Protein backbone atom coordinates (compact mmCIF):
# COMPACT_ATOMS: atom_id res chain seq x y z
CA UNK A 1 0.00 0.00 0.00
CA UNK A 2 1.44 3.38 -1.02
CA UNK A 3 0.33 6.05 1.43
CA UNK A 4 2.35 8.78 -0.27
CA UNK A 5 1.55 9.13 -3.97
CA UNK A 6 2.76 11.71 -6.47
CA UNK A 7 0.56 12.26 -9.52
CA UNK A 8 0.77 14.76 -12.37
CA UNK A 9 -0.97 15.70 -15.59
CA UNK A 10 0.68 17.77 -18.30
CA UNK A 11 -0.06 19.10 -21.77
CA UNK A 12 -0.65 22.31 -23.64
CA UNK A 13 -2.92 25.19 -22.67
CA UNK A 14 -6.45 24.22 -23.68
CA UNK A 15 -6.02 20.56 -22.69
CA UNK A 16 -7.95 21.10 -19.46
CA UNK A 17 -4.92 20.56 -17.27
CA UNK A 18 -6.03 22.84 -14.44
CA UNK A 19 -9.56 21.43 -14.25
CA UNK A 20 -8.22 17.87 -14.36
CA UNK A 21 -5.91 18.53 -11.43
CA UNK A 22 -8.56 20.32 -9.39
CA UNK A 23 -11.10 17.54 -9.91
CA UNK A 24 -8.65 14.88 -8.76
CA UNK A 25 -7.48 17.01 -5.80
CA UNK A 26 -11.09 17.53 -4.68
CA UNK A 27 -11.84 13.82 -5.04
CA UNK A 28 -8.81 12.89 -2.95
CA UNK A 29 -9.67 15.38 -0.21
CA UNK A 30 -13.27 14.19 -0.10
CA UNK A 31 -11.91 10.68 0.37
CA UNK A 32 -10.19 11.87 3.53
CA UNK A 33 -6.69 12.12 2.07
CA UNK A 34 -4.33 15.05 2.48
CA UNK A 35 -3.38 16.91 -0.69
CA UNK A 36 -0.61 19.30 -1.68
CA UNK A 37 -0.59 20.65 -5.24
CA UNK A 38 1.86 22.44 -7.49
CA UNK A 39 1.29 24.16 -10.83
CA UNK A 40 3.54 25.01 -13.74
CA UNK A 41 2.19 27.20 -16.52
CA UNK A 42 3.74 29.36 -19.20
CA UNK A 43 3.93 33.17 -18.98
CA UNK A 44 2.21 33.62 -22.32
CA UNK A 45 -1.31 34.71 -23.21
CA UNK A 46 -1.44 32.14 -26.00
CA UNK A 47 -0.51 29.41 -23.57
CA UNK A 48 2.17 26.76 -23.67
CA UNK A 49 3.25 23.80 -21.57
CA UNK A 50 1.13 23.39 -18.44
CA UNK A 51 1.35 20.89 -15.61
CA UNK A 52 -0.55 20.19 -12.42
CA UNK A 53 1.04 18.00 -9.73
CA UNK A 54 -0.57 16.44 -6.68
CA UNK A 55 1.09 14.84 -3.71
CA UNK A 56 -1.34 12.92 -1.54
CA UNK A 57 -1.10 10.95 1.69
CA UNK A 58 -3.20 9.94 4.68
CA UNK A 59 -0.75 12.08 6.66
CA UNK A 60 -0.30 15.81 6.18
CA UNK A 61 1.94 16.79 3.26
CA UNK A 62 3.52 20.24 3.01
CA UNK A 63 5.84 20.11 0.03
CA UNK A 64 6.49 18.68 -3.39
CA UNK A 65 9.28 16.16 -3.90
CA UNK A 66 11.41 14.95 -6.82
CA UNK A 67 9.33 11.85 -7.50
CA UNK A 68 6.42 11.09 -9.80
CA UNK A 69 4.48 7.85 -9.53
CA UNK A 70 1.66 8.45 -12.00
CA UNK A 71 1.97 10.77 -15.00
CA UNK A 72 -0.85 11.60 -17.38
CA UNK A 73 1.02 12.72 -20.50
CA UNK A 74 -1.05 14.48 -23.11
CA UNK A 75 2.08 15.52 -25.02
CA UNK A 76 5.61 14.19 -25.44
CA UNK A 77 6.93 17.31 -23.73
CA UNK A 78 5.11 16.22 -20.59
CA UNK A 79 7.26 13.09 -20.48
CA UNK A 80 10.45 14.96 -21.31
CA UNK A 81 9.86 17.67 -18.72
CA UNK A 82 9.28 15.14 -15.94
CA UNK A 83 11.75 12.43 -16.88
CA UNK A 84 14.09 13.19 -13.98
CA UNK A 85 11.29 12.62 -11.47
CA UNK A 86 10.03 9.33 -12.94
CA UNK A 87 11.24 5.96 -11.65
CA UNK A 88 11.01 2.31 -12.68
CA UNK A 89 7.63 1.83 -10.99
CA UNK A 90 6.13 4.95 -12.51
CA UNK A 91 3.07 4.52 -14.70
CA UNK A 92 2.70 6.84 -17.69
CA UNK A 93 -0.79 7.19 -19.14
CA UNK A 94 -0.86 8.35 -22.77
CA UNK A 95 -2.99 8.10 -25.89
CA UNK A 96 -1.28 5.94 -28.50
CA UNK A 97 -3.95 6.76 -31.09
CA UNK A 98 -2.84 10.36 -31.29
CA UNK A 99 -0.43 11.56 -33.97
CA UNK A 100 2.60 11.59 -31.65
CA UNK A 101 4.44 8.42 -30.68
CA UNK A 102 5.30 8.47 -27.00
CA UNK A 103 8.93 7.83 -26.11
CA UNK A 104 8.83 6.09 -22.73
CA UNK A 105 11.83 4.43 -21.06
CA UNK A 106 11.52 0.64 -21.16
CA UNK A 107 11.86 0.21 -17.40
CA UNK A 108 8.72 2.27 -16.79
CA UNK A 109 5.10 1.23 -17.15
CA UNK A 110 3.58 2.57 -20.37
CA UNK A 111 -0.21 2.61 -20.14
CA UNK A 112 -1.61 3.26 -23.62
CA UNK A 113 -5.26 4.31 -23.34
CA UNK A 114 -7.33 5.57 -26.31
CA UNK A 115 -8.33 8.68 -24.38
CA UNK A 116 -9.91 10.53 -27.28
CA UNK A 117 -11.89 7.55 -28.63
CA UNK A 118 -13.24 6.61 -25.22
CA UNK A 119 -14.15 10.24 -24.55
CA UNK A 120 -16.01 10.49 -27.86
CA UNK A 121 -17.96 7.34 -26.98
CA UNK A 122 -18.91 8.95 -23.66
CA UNK A 123 -20.13 12.15 -25.30
CA UNK A 124 -17.23 14.25 -26.54
CA UNK A 125 -13.47 14.27 -27.16
CA UNK A 126 -13.10 17.18 -24.73
CA UNK A 127 -13.46 14.68 -21.87
CA UNK A 128 -10.25 12.77 -22.66
CA UNK A 129 -8.69 14.22 -19.50
CA UNK A 130 -11.52 12.72 -17.45
CA UNK A 131 -10.93 9.34 -19.14
CA UNK A 132 -7.32 9.66 -18.00
CA UNK A 133 -8.48 10.32 -14.44
CA UNK A 134 -10.51 7.12 -14.52
CA UNK A 135 -7.44 5.25 -15.73
CA UNK A 136 -5.38 6.74 -12.90
CA UNK A 137 -8.01 5.64 -10.39
CA UNK A 138 -7.72 2.05 -11.57
CA UNK A 139 -3.91 2.06 -11.43
CA UNK A 140 -3.81 3.54 -7.92
CA UNK A 141 -6.68 1.52 -6.48
CA UNK A 142 -8.68 4.68 -5.85
CA UNK A 143 -12.45 4.23 -6.04
CA UNK A 144 -13.66 6.08 -9.14
CA UNK A 145 -16.88 6.97 -7.33
CA UNK A 146 -14.95 9.58 -5.35
CA UNK A 147 -14.66 11.48 -8.62
CA UNK A 148 -18.42 11.77 -8.91
CA UNK A 149 -18.92 14.50 -6.33
CA UNK A 150 -15.99 16.48 -7.70
CA UNK A 151 -17.41 16.17 -11.23
CA UNK A 152 -20.81 17.31 -10.01
CA UNK A 153 -19.25 20.35 -8.37
CA UNK A 154 -17.22 21.18 -11.47
CA UNK A 155 -19.88 20.65 -14.14
CA UNK A 156 -23.17 20.84 -12.22
CA UNK A 157 -23.93 24.28 -13.61
CA UNK A 158 -23.78 22.93 -17.16
CA UNK A 159 -26.60 20.45 -16.68
CA UNK A 160 -27.06 16.85 -15.58
CA UNK A 161 -26.20 15.40 -19.01
CA UNK A 162 -22.72 16.93 -18.96
CA UNK A 163 -22.18 15.56 -15.46
CA UNK A 164 -23.31 12.06 -16.44
CA UNK A 165 -21.16 12.10 -19.57
CA UNK A 166 -18.10 12.94 -17.48
CA UNK A 167 -18.88 10.17 -15.02
CA UNK A 168 -19.17 7.76 -17.95
CA UNK A 169 -15.85 8.97 -19.33
CA UNK A 170 -14.11 8.32 -16.01
CA UNK A 171 -15.51 4.81 -15.84
CA UNK A 172 -14.51 4.15 -19.44
CA UNK A 173 -10.89 4.92 -18.54
CA UNK A 174 -11.07 2.78 -15.45
CA UNK A 175 -12.56 -0.19 -17.29
CA UNK A 176 -10.10 0.03 -20.17
CA UNK A 177 -7.09 -0.26 -17.85
CA UNK A 178 -8.83 -3.00 -15.88
CA UNK A 179 -9.36 -5.07 -19.03
CA UNK A 180 -6.02 -4.48 -20.78
CA UNK A 181 -3.39 -4.15 -18.03
CA UNK A 182 -2.26 -6.00 -14.94
CA UNK A 183 -0.47 -3.44 -12.77
CA UNK A 184 -0.91 -5.09 -9.37
CA UNK A 185 2.87 -5.32 -9.06
CA UNK A 186 3.02 -1.53 -8.62
CA UNK A 187 1.38 -1.92 -5.22
CA UNK A 188 -0.73 1.22 -5.35
CA UNK A 189 -3.84 1.12 -3.18
CA UNK A 190 -4.87 4.56 -2.00
CA UNK A 191 -6.25 4.34 1.50
CA UNK A 192 -9.28 6.48 2.29
CA UNK A 193 -10.44 7.83 5.65
CA UNK A 194 -13.53 9.41 7.17
CA UNK A 195 -11.75 12.73 7.71
CA UNK A 196 -13.35 15.88 6.37
CA UNK A 197 -10.89 18.39 4.92
CA UNK A 198 -11.04 21.90 3.51
CA UNK A 199 -9.13 22.28 0.23
CA UNK A 200 -8.00 25.79 -0.69
CA UNK A 201 -5.04 27.81 -1.91
CA UNK A 202 -3.27 30.83 -0.44
CA UNK A 203 -5.17 33.44 -2.44
CA UNK A 204 -8.49 31.90 -1.44
CA UNK A 205 -7.34 31.94 2.20
CA UNK A 206 -6.45 35.63 1.90
CA UNK A 207 -9.87 36.36 0.42
CA UNK A 208 -11.58 34.33 3.13
CA UNK A 209 -9.54 36.11 5.80
CA UNK A 210 -10.50 39.49 4.36
CA UNK A 211 -14.20 38.63 4.59
CA UNK A 212 -13.81 37.29 8.12
CA UNK A 213 -11.96 40.48 9.09
CA UNK A 214 -14.83 42.64 7.86
CA UNK A 215 -13.38 43.85 4.57
CA UNK A 216 -16.19 45.57 2.71
CA UNK A 217 -14.38 47.21 -0.21
CA UNK A 218 -11.82 45.76 -2.58
CA UNK A 219 -10.35 47.49 -5.61
CA UNK A 220 -7.85 45.80 -7.87
CA UNK A 221 -6.55 45.33 -11.37
CA UNK A 222 -6.01 41.83 -12.83
CA UNK A 223 -2.39 40.68 -12.54
CA UNK A 224 -0.79 37.27 -12.18
CA UNK A 225 -0.69 35.78 -9.57
CA UNK A 226 -2.90 38.06 -7.43
CA UNK A 227 -6.04 38.08 -9.59
CA UNK A 228 -7.72 35.12 -7.91
CA UNK A 229 -8.05 37.12 -4.67
CA UNK A 230 -10.39 39.47 -6.53
CA UNK A 231 -12.11 36.50 -8.16
CA UNK A 232 -12.69 34.89 -4.76
CA UNK A 233 -14.18 38.05 -3.27
CA UNK A 234 -16.41 38.75 -6.29
CA UNK A 235 -19.81 37.23 -5.65
CA UNK A 236 -19.04 36.69 -1.96
CA UNK A 237 -18.30 40.13 -0.53
CA UNK A 238 -21.70 41.32 -1.81
CA UNK A 239 -23.38 38.89 0.60
CA UNK A 240 -21.93 40.99 3.44
CA UNK A 241 -22.82 44.37 1.97
CA UNK A 242 -19.44 44.91 0.35
CA UNK A 243 -18.23 45.68 -3.15
CA UNK A 244 -15.45 44.68 -5.53
CA UNK A 245 -14.32 47.17 -8.18
CA UNK A 246 -12.04 46.25 -11.07
CA UNK A 247 -10.06 49.42 -11.68
CA UNK A 248 -8.46 50.54 -14.95
CA UNK A 249 -4.95 50.19 -13.51
CA UNK A 250 -3.09 49.64 -10.24
CA UNK A 251 -2.76 53.33 -9.39
CA UNK A 252 -6.51 53.74 -9.66
CA UNK A 253 -7.03 50.57 -7.62
CA UNK A 254 -5.03 51.72 -4.59
CA UNK A 255 -6.59 55.18 -4.68
CA UNK A 256 -10.08 53.68 -4.83
CA UNK A 257 -9.18 51.47 -1.87
CA UNK A 258 -7.84 54.54 -0.08
CA UNK A 259 -11.15 56.30 -0.71
CA UNK A 260 -13.10 53.34 0.63
CA UNK A 261 -10.99 53.34 3.79
CA UNK A 262 -11.46 57.10 4.25
CA UNK A 263 -15.20 56.50 4.05
CA UNK A 264 -14.92 54.07 6.96
CA UNK A 265 -14.96 50.69 5.21
CA UNK A 266 -12.27 48.14 5.85
CA UNK A 267 -10.54 48.23 2.47
CA UNK A 268 -7.94 46.27 0.59
CA UNK A 269 -6.13 46.03 -2.72
CA UNK A 270 -3.92 43.25 -4.04
CA UNK A 271 -1.38 43.09 -6.84
CA UNK A 272 2.06 41.72 -7.70
CA UNK A 273 5.49 43.33 -8.05
CA UNK A 274 4.84 45.24 -11.25
CA UNK A 275 1.61 46.59 -9.76
CA UNK A 276 3.32 47.59 -6.52
CA UNK A 277 5.65 49.74 -8.66
CA UNK A 278 2.64 51.73 -9.83
CA UNK A 279 0.98 51.89 -6.41
CA UNK A 280 4.08 53.32 -4.74
CA UNK A 281 2.99 56.88 -5.47
CA UNK A 282 0.09 56.51 -3.05
CA UNK A 283 1.94 54.88 -0.14
CA UNK A 284 2.96 58.22 1.34
CA UNK A 285 -0.56 59.60 1.08
CA UNK A 286 -1.93 56.57 2.93
CA UNK A 287 0.58 57.04 5.74
CA UNK A 288 0.44 60.85 5.94
CA UNK A 289 -3.35 60.97 5.89
CA UNK A 290 -3.27 58.20 8.53
CA UNK A 291 -5.63 55.97 6.62
CA UNK A 292 -5.88 52.26 7.49
CA UNK A 293 -5.29 50.21 4.33
CA UNK A 294 -4.21 46.62 3.60
CA UNK A 295 -2.00 46.26 0.50
CA UNK A 296 -1.37 42.68 -0.59
CA UNK A 297 1.62 41.81 -2.78
CA UNK A 298 1.60 38.29 -4.23
CA UNK A 299 5.20 38.11 -5.41
CA UNK A 300 6.39 36.69 -8.71
CA UNK A 301 9.68 36.61 -10.61
CA UNK A 302 10.99 40.05 -11.55
CA UNK A 303 12.23 42.63 -12.24
CA UNK A 304 10.19 44.30 -14.98
CA UNK A 305 7.73 41.80 -16.47
CA UNK A 306 10.14 39.04 -15.41
CA UNK A 307 8.44 35.64 -15.36
CA UNK A 308 4.85 36.37 -14.33
CA UNK A 309 3.92 32.74 -13.64
CA UNK A 310 7.04 31.77 -11.71
CA UNK A 311 7.99 31.79 -8.04
CA UNK A 312 10.14 34.38 -6.28
CA UNK A 313 10.44 36.36 -3.04
CA UNK A 314 12.13 39.41 -4.47
CA UNK A 315 9.81 42.20 -3.29
CA UNK A 316 10.82 42.28 0.36
CA UNK A 317 12.93 45.42 0.05
CA UNK A 318 10.15 47.16 -1.86
CA UNK A 319 7.64 46.36 0.87
CA UNK A 320 10.03 47.73 3.47
CA UNK A 321 11.28 50.86 1.74
CA UNK A 322 9.05 51.83 -1.23
CA UNK A 323 7.82 55.41 -1.24
CA UNK A 324 9.70 58.68 -0.95
CA UNK A 325 10.26 60.24 2.42
CA UNK A 326 9.71 58.16 5.54
CA UNK A 327 6.56 56.06 5.48
CA UNK A 328 5.64 54.18 8.68
CA UNK A 329 4.24 50.75 7.83
CA UNK A 330 3.91 47.16 8.91
CA UNK A 331 5.00 44.21 6.75
CA UNK A 332 3.40 40.83 7.44
CA UNK A 333 4.39 37.71 5.49
CA UNK A 334 2.28 34.55 6.02
CA UNK A 335 4.33 31.36 6.07
CA UNK A 336 1.53 28.91 5.27
CA UNK A 337 -1.92 28.82 3.70
CA UNK A 338 -3.60 28.83 7.10
CA UNK A 339 -1.53 31.88 8.00
CA UNK A 340 -2.73 33.57 4.80
CA UNK A 341 -6.12 33.56 6.50
CA UNK A 342 -5.06 34.55 10.01
CA UNK A 343 -2.45 37.13 9.03
CA UNK A 344 -4.97 38.80 6.74
CA UNK A 345 -7.30 39.20 9.72
CA UNK A 346 -4.37 40.56 11.73
CA UNK A 347 -3.38 42.95 8.93
CA UNK A 348 -6.80 44.61 8.99
CA UNK A 349 -6.62 44.99 12.77
CA UNK A 350 -3.13 46.49 12.61
CA UNK A 351 -4.19 48.89 9.88
CA UNK A 352 -7.06 50.30 11.91
CA UNK A 353 -5.40 50.22 15.33
CA UNK A 354 -2.44 52.22 14.05
CA UNK A 355 -4.02 54.01 11.05
CA UNK A 356 -1.21 53.12 8.71
CA UNK A 357 -0.61 50.95 5.62
CA UNK A 358 -0.05 47.25 6.22
CA UNK A 359 1.73 45.23 3.54
CA UNK A 360 0.61 41.61 3.35
CA UNK A 361 3.32 39.73 1.43
CA UNK A 362 2.62 36.35 -0.14
CA UNK A 363 4.14 34.66 -3.21
CA UNK A 364 3.14 32.68 -6.28
CA UNK A 365 3.94 29.28 -4.81
CA UNK A 366 1.60 29.82 -1.90
CA UNK A 367 -1.03 31.62 -3.98
CA UNK A 368 -1.71 28.72 -6.37
CA UNK A 369 -0.94 25.78 -4.07
CA UNK A 370 -4.03 23.92 -2.95
CA UNK A 371 -3.71 22.12 0.34
CA UNK A 372 -6.01 20.25 2.72
CA UNK A 373 -6.77 21.37 6.27
CA UNK A 374 -9.22 20.35 8.98
CA UNK A 375 -12.12 22.82 9.15
CA UNK A 376 -11.11 23.90 12.65
CA UNK A 377 -7.97 25.50 11.19
CA UNK A 378 -10.29 28.35 10.16
CA UNK A 379 -12.50 28.65 13.23
CA UNK A 380 -14.44 31.88 12.75
CA UNK A 381 -15.18 32.01 16.48
CA UNK A 382 -11.51 32.81 17.01
CA UNK A 383 -11.60 35.85 14.74
CA UNK A 384 -11.33 39.10 16.68
CA UNK A 385 -11.87 42.52 15.14
CA UNK A 386 -10.27 45.64 16.63
CA UNK A 387 -11.17 48.91 14.92
CA UNK A 388 -8.84 51.00 17.03
CA UNK A 389 -9.60 54.57 18.10
CA UNK A 390 -12.89 55.01 16.29
CA UNK A 391 -14.85 57.78 17.98
CA UNK A 392 -18.55 58.54 18.06
CA UNK A 393 -20.77 61.27 19.48
CA UNK A 394 -20.38 59.80 22.98
CA UNK A 395 -16.62 60.25 23.23
CA UNK A 396 -15.65 62.76 20.56
CA UNK A 397 -15.70 65.79 22.88
CA UNK A 398 -12.22 65.10 24.28
CA UNK A 399 -10.81 65.39 20.75
CA UNK A 400 -12.32 68.78 19.91
CA UNK A 401 -10.33 72.01 20.14
CA UNK A 402 -11.59 75.15 21.87
CA UNK A 403 -13.61 76.06 18.78
CA UNK A 404 -15.27 72.62 18.57
CA UNK A 405 -13.13 71.39 15.67
CA UNK A 406 -12.15 67.73 15.50
CA UNK A 407 -8.41 67.11 15.84
CA UNK A 408 -8.07 64.20 13.43
CA UNK A 409 -4.29 64.32 13.66
CA UNK A 410 -4.03 65.01 17.37
CA UNK A 411 -0.57 64.46 18.84
CA UNK A 412 -0.78 61.54 21.28
CA UNK A 413 1.64 59.62 23.46
CA UNK A 414 1.16 56.40 21.50
CA UNK A 415 1.25 58.12 18.11
CA UNK A 416 -2.32 57.10 17.23
CA UNK A 417 -4.86 59.87 16.70
CA UNK A 418 -8.64 59.53 17.05
CA UNK A 419 -10.54 58.51 13.92
CA UNK A 420 -14.00 59.66 12.91
CA UNK A 421 -15.65 58.25 9.84
CA UNK A 422 -17.87 60.48 7.68
CA UNK A 423 -21.21 61.16 9.30
CA UNK A 424 -19.90 61.16 12.87
CA UNK A 425 -21.39 64.09 14.78
CA UNK A 426 -18.75 66.86 15.19
CA UNK A 427 -16.25 64.66 13.34
CA UNK A 428 -15.86 66.74 10.16
CA UNK A 429 -12.20 67.21 9.29
CA UNK A 430 -9.73 67.32 6.45
CA UNK A 431 -6.60 65.34 5.62
CA UNK A 432 -4.18 65.98 2.79
CA UNK A 433 -0.90 64.68 1.49
CA UNK A 434 0.70 67.95 2.56
CA UNK A 435 2.20 68.16 6.00
CA UNK A 436 -0.51 69.35 8.35
CA UNK A 437 -1.32 70.38 11.87
CA UNK A 438 -3.64 68.54 14.27
CA UNK A 439 -6.69 69.79 12.35
CA UNK A 440 -5.31 68.57 9.02
CA UNK A 441 -4.55 72.09 7.78
CA UNK A 442 -1.45 72.58 5.64
CA UNK A 443 1.55 73.74 7.62
CA UNK A 444 5.25 74.41 7.20
CA UNK A 445 5.81 75.35 10.82
CA UNK A 446 8.92 73.53 12.00
CA UNK A 447 7.56 72.53 15.41
CA UNK A 448 4.33 71.16 13.92
CA UNK A 449 6.26 69.29 11.26
CA UNK A 450 8.45 67.61 13.88
CA UNK A 451 5.44 66.81 16.06
CA UNK A 452 3.57 65.08 13.22
CA UNK A 453 6.58 63.10 11.95
CA UNK A 454 7.43 61.95 15.47
CA UNK A 455 3.81 61.09 16.16
CA UNK A 456 3.51 58.90 13.07
CA UNK A 457 6.80 57.19 13.90
CA UNK A 458 5.62 56.45 17.45
CA UNK A 459 2.92 54.18 16.03
CA UNK A 460 5.56 51.62 15.13
CA UNK A 461 7.23 51.89 18.54
CA UNK A 462 3.86 51.48 20.25
CA UNK A 463 3.09 48.45 18.12
CA UNK A 464 6.48 46.92 18.90
CA UNK A 465 5.63 47.10 22.60
CA UNK A 466 2.00 46.02 22.44
CA UNK A 467 1.74 43.46 19.63
CA UNK A 468 3.13 39.94 19.42
CA UNK A 469 5.89 39.95 16.79
CA UNK A 470 6.84 36.36 17.40
CA UNK A 471 8.10 33.51 15.26
CA UNK A 472 7.21 29.84 14.96
CA UNK A 473 9.82 27.16 15.43
CA UNK A 474 10.06 23.41 14.89
CA UNK A 475 12.69 20.73 14.74
CA UNK A 476 15.13 20.22 17.62
CA UNK A 477 15.17 23.34 19.79
CA UNK A 478 18.52 22.27 21.26
CA UNK A 479 20.21 21.77 17.89
CA UNK A 480 23.42 23.66 17.10
CA UNK A 481 22.29 24.22 13.50
CA UNK A 482 19.73 26.98 12.97
CA UNK A 483 17.70 27.56 9.80
CA UNK A 484 15.78 30.84 9.43
CA UNK A 485 13.05 31.20 6.83
CA UNK A 486 10.22 33.50 5.83
CA UNK A 487 7.20 33.11 3.56
CA UNK A 488 6.21 29.93 1.78
CA UNK A 489 9.45 28.01 2.39
CA UNK A 490 8.20 26.70 5.74
CA UNK A 491 6.47 23.57 4.42
CA UNK A 492 9.47 22.36 2.44
CA UNK A 493 11.70 22.99 5.46
CA UNK A 494 9.41 21.05 7.76
CA UNK A 495 9.60 17.99 5.52
CA UNK A 496 13.32 18.47 4.81
CA UNK A 497 13.93 17.79 8.52
CA UNK A 498 12.85 14.18 8.00
CA UNK A 499 15.55 13.66 5.38
CA UNK A 500 18.17 15.39 7.55
CA UNK A 501 17.20 13.34 10.60
CA UNK A 502 17.83 10.16 8.62
CA UNK A 503 21.39 11.42 8.09
CA UNK A 504 21.81 12.23 11.76
CA UNK A 505 21.64 16.01 11.30
CA UNK A 506 19.71 17.95 13.95
CA UNK A 507 18.17 21.23 12.88
CA UNK A 508 16.27 23.99 14.63
CA UNK A 509 14.02 25.96 12.28
CA UNK A 510 12.68 29.44 12.92
CA UNK A 511 9.95 30.59 10.54
CA UNK A 512 9.32 34.34 10.64
CA UNK A 513 5.94 35.79 9.57
CA UNK A 514 6.78 39.40 10.46
CA UNK A 515 9.21 41.38 8.32
CA UNK A 516 8.64 44.73 10.01
CA UNK A 517 8.65 44.93 12.90
CA UNK A 518 10.37 41.55 13.20
CA UNK A 519 11.40 39.46 16.20
CA UNK A 520 14.84 39.93 17.75
CA UNK A 521 16.77 36.75 16.95
CA UNK A 522 20.05 37.79 18.54
CA UNK A 523 20.00 35.19 21.33
CA UNK A 524 18.94 32.39 18.99
CA UNK A 525 21.66 33.18 16.48
CA UNK A 526 24.38 33.57 19.13
CA UNK A 527 23.45 30.16 20.55
CA UNK A 528 23.87 28.42 17.19
CA UNK A 529 27.05 27.11 15.60
CA UNK A 530 25.68 27.39 12.08
CA UNK A 531 22.99 29.79 10.86
CA UNK A 532 21.45 29.47 7.38
CA UNK A 533 18.80 31.77 5.92
CA UNK A 534 16.59 30.20 3.22
CA UNK A 535 14.69 32.33 0.68
CA UNK A 536 13.61 32.51 -2.96
CA UNK A 537 15.62 35.46 -4.26
CA UNK A 538 19.10 36.06 -5.60
CA UNK A 539 20.51 38.61 -3.17
CA UNK A 540 19.35 37.29 0.19
CA UNK A 541 17.14 40.21 1.15
CA UNK A 542 15.96 38.69 4.43
CA UNK A 543 19.48 37.48 5.24
CA UNK A 544 20.64 41.08 4.85
CA UNK A 545 18.09 42.16 7.45
CA UNK A 546 19.17 39.44 9.86
CA UNK A 547 22.82 40.41 9.50
CA UNK A 548 21.92 44.07 10.04
CA UNK A 549 19.98 43.20 13.20
CA UNK A 550 22.54 40.93 14.87
CA UNK A 551 25.81 42.18 13.28
CA UNK A 552 26.76 38.59 12.46
CA UNK A 553 27.32 37.00 9.05
CA UNK A 554 25.06 34.08 8.14
CA UNK A 555 25.09 31.42 5.47
CA UNK A 556 22.53 31.64 2.68
CA UNK A 557 20.51 29.31 0.50
CA UNK A 558 18.96 31.27 -2.35
CA UNK A 559 16.81 29.91 -5.13
CA UNK A 560 15.71 32.11 -8.03
CA UNK A 561 15.03 29.66 -10.84
CA UNK A 562 11.32 30.49 -10.76
CA UNK A 563 10.55 27.16 -9.06
CA UNK A 564 9.75 26.66 -5.37
CA UNK A 565 11.94 24.71 -2.97
CA UNK A 566 11.36 20.96 -2.74
CA UNK A 567 11.85 19.14 0.54
CA UNK A 568 14.45 16.60 -0.61
CA UNK A 569 16.32 19.21 -2.65
CA UNK A 570 16.41 21.58 0.31
CA UNK A 571 17.71 18.89 2.65
CA UNK A 572 20.60 18.24 0.26
CA UNK A 573 21.45 21.95 0.03
CA UNK A 574 21.37 22.34 3.81
CA UNK A 575 23.76 19.42 4.21
CA UNK A 576 26.17 20.98 1.73
CA UNK A 577 25.90 24.44 3.28
CA UNK A 578 26.67 23.12 6.78
CA UNK A 579 30.06 21.96 5.55
CA UNK A 580 30.99 25.42 4.25
CA UNK A 581 32.77 28.16 6.16
CA UNK A 582 30.84 31.18 7.39
CA UNK A 583 31.45 34.17 5.08
CA UNK A 584 34.09 36.61 6.28
CA UNK A 585 32.91 39.64 8.22
Automatic annotation (TrEMBL):
Source organism superkingdom: Archaea
Catalytic activity: 2 oxidized [2Fe-2S]-[ferredoxin] + 2-oxoglutarate + CoA = succinyl-CoA + 2 reduced [2Fe-2S]-[ferredoxin] + CO2 + H(+)
Annotated Gene3D superfamilies: 3.40.50.920, 3.40.50.970, Pyruvate-ferredoxin oxidoreductase, PFOR, domain III
Pfam families for the chain: POR, POR_N
Annotated keywords: Oxidoreductase, Pyruvate
GO MF, one annotated term: 2-oxoglutarate synthase activity
Domain Pyruvate/ketoisovalerate oxidoreductase catalytic: from-to ranges: 13-173
Domain Pyruvate flavodoxin/ferredoxin oxidoreductase pyrimidine binding: 209-453
Annotated GO biological process: organic acid metabolic process; response to oxidative stress; sulfur compound biosynthetic process
EC id: 1.2.7.3
Segments of this protein annotated with the region Disordered: 414-448
Biased composition regions of type Basic and acidic residues, renumbered to the chain: 434-448
Enzyme class, UniProt record, top EC level: oxidoreductase
Subunit structure: Heterotetramer of the KorA, KorB, KorC and KorD subunits.
Listed name of the protein: 2-oxoglutarate synthase subunit KorA
Protein's organism: Natronorubrum bangense JCM 10635
Top-level taxonomy: Archaea, Methanobacteriati, Methanobacteriota, Stenosarchaea group, Halobacteria
